[in-house]
Design a protein that fits this description.
The complex is a heterodimer of chains A (341) and B (431). Chain A has two domains: 27-192, M75 peptidase, HXXE motif (A middle domain of Talin 1); 193-330. Chain A is built from 13 helices and one strand. Chain A has helices at residues 2-16, 29-60, 64-83, 97-101, 110-120, 127-131, 140-148, 160-193, 196-221, 241-266, 270-288, 295-298, 301-328, and one strand at 331-333. The chains are: A mainly alpha (341), B mainly alpha (431). At the A-B interface, helix 9 and strand 1 of A face strand 1, helix 9 and helix 14 of B. Strand 1 of chain A pairs antiparallel with strand 1 of chain B, so a sheet runs across the interface. Chain A: It is found in: Cell envelope.
Chain lengths: 341, 431
C-alpha cells in the first residue's frame, strides 16, 4: 500500500516537475552538481526498491539463491547511498535522513539492541512502526544485523518475525530514499538560485573526505591516538568496509568532480582540477585492489600496509581539496556539526 | 558520532572571504563609549577565572559532603552529597564554553567531564541493561571489585586507589569510554545505574554500598569508599590547577599566554568556543543524537537525570561570553566590556539579533528544565527522547533549532569582527 502510493506520487512529481532553467551555453557548476546528484539519488531510490522487492521474494520462498540475491541487493543499495553521501545538506537533513539510512558510528551497539528488541516483540512491526522508532532501526546497518550478525545463527532470517522486521525496514528505506530523490528535485530551484550553495557543496565534500580519512579509516585502523578497534568501522558485520569507501570515492568521481572542474575552470585554475582527478583515480585504483573488509586486515601485516596506502591517498586527496583548492577559491570554513568531540 | 551535518540549508558552512566585510576593530579607548577588543578579551579571561573559581568552590563543598557521607553513611548524608553534586554542575557546565578554542581546557577536561562512560569499569552493573562500547576491554573491568585489572593485554595493579591512580586510568586502553574520574564517575558512585530506561526515575544506589562490615551491600565497600574519596579529591586538585591558569598576574600561566596573542586571536577563541558548544556539542552530540536514536545511553547526566540542567547551563555559558556577564554562585555578578558591545560598534543590528537569539535559546532550554522539574508528572530528558513522545521531541527540537540559528549569527559576528577563520589555530589539535 505505502509502496504503491509512493510510486504514484513519484510519477506525478515527474510529470509536474517544471524544467529547470539551464543557461544556454555551458552549464554552471551548481547546475552540474544538481544534475549529477539527482542521478545519484535516483539510483539510490531504485536500488532501495530492488532491495525491498528482493526482501519480499526471499520471505515468500526462502532459499539460498534468493538469499544471495538479497545480500547483493542490500550491498548495491548501501553502495548507492555511499556514492551520494558527500551531500550533507538540503533534503538529506530533513528528519535526520542521513542517520535514517546509516546510523554510524554506533559505539554502544544501539543497532544491535534495537533489532534484538523488535525480534523479541510479540508483534512484528510494519513500516509505520519503524518510521516512528529510533534511527538505529531504520537503515542499512539494521538490515546488516539481520543478514550477518552472529546472533542470527540461532534465529533464521526466514522466521516470520525476523522476515517481517526486515520487510518493514526495507519498505521504510525505499520510502525514505524515494522521498529524498523527489525532494532533491524540488530543491533544485532554490539550490541554483542561491550562490552560497557553491561554498556549501564544496565544504560538504571536504567534510566528507575528512570523515573518510579520520572516522571511516583512521579510527578503526588505530591511527588516531587510540588502538585499532574494528567495531568502529562501517559494515564490520558484513566485512564490506572498504567496498563502501570505494563507492564513496566513485560517487565523488561522478557526482562531484564535473562541477568542481567547471568551477576551477571559471577560476582559471584548471590544473588543480586535473590534479584532483588524478589523485582521485589513483585512490580509486588503490581501493579497488584491496580486500573488501577492514577488520581482517588489522591482523595481517601486508593487508594493513595496503590499507595504510589507501589512507595516505585519501589524506592527500583531502589536502588537495581542503587546502589547495579551497585556498585558491578563498574558502573560509565555519562551524560544522563535528566541532564537538 | 554520526557525522551528519546539522544545520539549516541556508546556514552556509563557509563564506567566501572575498565577500566578508573586514571591520577593523576599534582600538580607540579614549572615547568613553568605545569598547576595545583588547578589553573584551581581558574581561573574557576574568569571566573564566570567576567561573572556574566557582566550580572549585562547589567541588570543595562536594568533597566535604562526600567526606561526611563516608564518615556516617545515611540516607541524609547521601542526599546532601547528591545535592552538592547538582550544585557543582551549575558553574562547571557554564565553563564548558571555554573548552573549545582554548587547548589548555580541552586537553584537561577529559579527566573531569568525559562522557559517555562505560561505568562497568568502575563498579558493579546489571548485565542485561548495560550497553558498553563495542571492543572496549575495560568496560567490565570493575576496579572496585578487583585489585588487578587487565586492559589491552596489560595487567595493572589497582590495589591502592588514589587520585593519581585514577588520573592514570582515565581513557586506559585508548577508549574514551573508560572514564575513571570526574563528575560522571562521581555521579555514578552517588546515584548508580539508571535502570528505568525511558520511564520516570533515576539511579537508586543504596547508601549501604558505603557501609562497613556486615551492612555493606554489593561487596567491596571499603574499596568503593576509597574510590569515592579519591575521585572527589582529584576533582578538587584538577579545578585548582585550572583556576591558577586563569588567575591574574601569574607568571607563565594560560591567561598570560592568551593575552599575549593578538586581539583577533583572542576573539577567535571566544567565538570558536561559543559556536562549537552551541552546534556540534550541545545541539548535536548531546541532544540530536539522543533524540533521533531514542538512546538513553547518549543522555548526558544519565545516572542522576540532571541532563536538563547540564544543557541549560551550557547555554547560559554561551550567553555569558556574549554579554560579558556571569552570575556567581553567591549571587554577585561579574560584568565588563562585552563581545556584544564590540559587535554593536561594527553592526548594531547583528548585535541585537544575536542577543535576541541567545535569549530565545535560553527560553527553549528553560522550557526543557521546567518540564523536567515540574511538580506534577515531570518529564526528564530520558523520557523526552522516548520513541513516540511528540511533546518531548518538540521541546528538544525547538532548542536544537534555536542553537543552530544562533550559530549562524556567531559565524556572521566573526566575519564582522574580522575573524577570518574559525578553524582552530593549532591544526594538529583535534576538535
Amino acid at each position: 500500500m505505502i509502496a504503491s502510493l509512493r510510486r504514484l506520487s513519484l510519477l506525478a512529481c515527474a510529470l509536474l516537475a517544471t524544467p529547470l532553467s539551464f543557461a544556454t551555453d555551458t552549464p554552471t557548476p551548481r547546475e552540474m552538481w544538481h544534475g549529477a546528484v539527482e542521478l545519484q539519488y535516483a539510483e539510490l531510490s531504485a536500488a532501495s526498491e530492488r532491495l525491498e522487492a528482493s526482501a519480499a521474494r526471499f520471505c515468500q520462498s526462502p532459499d539460498e539463491a534468493l538469499r544471495q540475491r538479497l545480500e547483493n541487493d542490500w550491498l548495491s543499495a548501501y553502495q548507492a547511498w555511499q556514492a551520494v553521501r558527500f551531500i550533507q545538506f538540503g533534503p538529506v537533513e530533513q528528519n535526520s535522513r542521513g542517520w535514517q539510512l546509516q546510523f554510524w558510528p554506533d559505539r554502544k551497539n544501539l543497532v544491535g539492541s534495537k533489532v534484538r528488541g523488535w525480534l523479541k516483540a510479540a508483534e512484528a512491526p510494519d513500516a509505520q512502526d519503524i518510521a516512528s522508532d529510533s534511527v538505529a532501526i531504520q537503515g542499512f546497518p539494521a538490515l546488516e544485523y539481520l543478514l550477518y550478525d552472529d546472533a542470527m545463527d540461532e534465529q533464521a532470517l526466514s522466521d516470520p518475525g525476523a522476515c517481517s522486521l526486515m520487510q518493514a525496514i526495507t519498505t521504510h528505506l525505499a520510502d525514505t530514499t524515494s522521498a529524498l530523490h523527489r525532494d532533491w528535485q524540488a530543491f533544485g530551484e532554490h539550490y541554483l538560485e542561491t550562490p552560497d550553495y557553491t561554498e556549501t557543496t564544496l565544504a560538504s565534500a571536504i567534510q566528507a573526505l575528512e570523515i573518510l580519512e579520520d572516522k571511516r579509516l583512521g579510527e578503526p585502523m588505530g591511527l588516531k591516538g587510540a588502538p585499532a578497534n574494528g567495531y568502529l568501522a562501517e559494515a564490520w558485520r558484513s566485512g564490506q568496509t572498504v567496498r563502501l569507501v570505494e563507492s564513496s570515492l566513485e560517487g565523488l568521481r561522478t557526482g562531484f568532480l564535473p562541477g568542481l572542474t567547471a568551477l576551477l575552470r571559471e577560476a582559471d585554475a584548471l590544473p588543480l582540477a586535473e590534479a584532483f582527478r588524478d589523485q582521485l583515480d589513483k585512490t580509486l585504483v588503490q581501493a579497488s585492489e584491496l580486500p573488501p573488509g577492514l577488520v581482517p586486515s588489522l591482523e595481517d601485516e601486508e593487508a594493513f600496509r595496503g590499507l595504510q596506502s589507501l589512507y595516505l591517498d585519501i589524506s592527500q586527496l583531502r589536502h588537495l581539496l581542503g587546502n589547495e583548492i579551497a585556498g585558491e577559491l578563498g574558502l573560509v570554513r565555519g562551524f560544522n556539526s563535528s566541532d564537538g568531540d | 558520532m554520526p557525522a551528519i551535518m546539522l544545520r539549516r540549508p541556508l546556514a552556509g558552512i563557509v563564506a567566501l572571504s572575498a565577500l566578508m566585510p573586514f571591520a577593523p576593530v576599534a582600538v580607540d579607548t579614549a572615547a568613553a563609549d568605545t569598547v576595545s577588543a583588547d578589553a573584551v578579551v581581558k574581561h573574557y579571561a576574568d569571566l573564566a577565572h570567576a567561573n572556574y573559581a566557582d566550580a572549585l568552590n562547589a567541588a570543595q563543598a562536594l568533597n566535604e559532603r562526600i567526606d561526611e557521607l563516608l564518615a556516617n553513611p545515611t540516607a541524609e548524608t547521601l542526599s546532601a552529597a547528591k545535592q552538592a553534586w547538582l550544585q557543582a554542575r551549575v558553574p562547571y557546565q557554564q565553563s564548558e564554553v571555554f573548552r573549545f578554542g582554548n587547548a589548555v581546557v580541552d586537553d584537561w577536561e577529559g579527566q573531569l567531564n568525559a562522557w559517555p562512560l562505560d561505568e562497568g569499569m568502575i563498579d558493579y552493573v546489571e548485565g542485561d541493561d548495560y550497553q558498553h562500547e563495542l571492543g572496549n576491554e575495560g568496560a567490565t573491568a570493575n576496579i572496585i571489585a578487583n585489585e588487578q585489572i587487565t586492559v589491552g593485554g596489560e595487567t595493572l595493579d589497582v590495589s591502592d586507589i588514589t587520585p593519581a591512580l585514577l588520573a592514570d586510568l582515565n581513557e586506559i586502553g585508548g577508549s574514551e569510554a573508560n572514564v575513571a574520574s570526574g563528575y560522571h564517575a562521581i555521579e555514578f558512585l552517588l546515584w548508580g545505574q539508571d535502570l528505568h530506561g525511558f520511564e520516570e526515575g533515576n539511579g537508586e544506589r543504596p547508601v549501604s554500598d558505603y557501609q562497613t562490615g556486615d551492612d555493606c551491600t554489593h561487596g567491596h565497600c571499603d574499596r568503593r569508599r576509597s574510590y569515592l574519596d579519591a575521585v572527589s579529591d582529584l576533582l578538587v586538585d584538577d579545578l585548582e590547577w585550572m583556576v591558577a591558569q586563569w588567575a591574574p598576574e601569574t607568571e607563565g600561566n594560560y591567561r598570560q599566554e592568551l593575552l599575549a596573542e593578538s586581539d583577533q586571536e583572542g576573539l577567535r577563541r571566544m567565538l570558536f568556543g561559543m559556536g562549537s558548544l552551541s552546534l556540534g556539542e550541545l545541539a548535536g552530540e548531546r541532544m540530536k543524537v539522543a533524540l533521533e536514536a531514542n538512546s538513553f545511553e547518549d543522555e548526558h547526566d544519565c545516572f542522576s537525570d540532571n541532563t536538563h540542567n547540564s544543557h541549560y547551563y551550557n547555554g547560559q555559558g554561551v550567553q555569558n561570553i556574549y554579554t560579558g556577564s556571569y552570575q556567581r554562585l553567591d549571587g554577585s555578578v561579574v560584568e565588563g566590556p562585552s563581545l556584544q558591545d564590540l559587535l554593536s560598534q561594527a553592526d548594531s543590528e547583528l548585535a541585537d539579533t544575536l542577543g535576541a537569539q541567545l535569549e530565545a535559546t535560553m527560553a527553549r532550554l528553560d522550557a526543557i528544565k521546567q518540564a523536567a522539574e515540574a511538580e506534577s508528572s515531570p518529564m526528564a530528558f530520558d523520557m523526552m527522547i522516548a520513541p513516540g513522545n511528540e511533546q518531548g521531541s518538540e521541546l528538544i527540537n525547538e532548542a536544537i533549532l534555536s542553537l543552530v540559528a544562533q550559530t549562524g549569527s556567531i559565524e556572521q559576528a566573526a566575519g564582522e569582527l574580522g575573524v577570518t577563520s574559525l578553524q582552530p589555530d593549532d591544526a594538529g589539535h583535534r576538535f
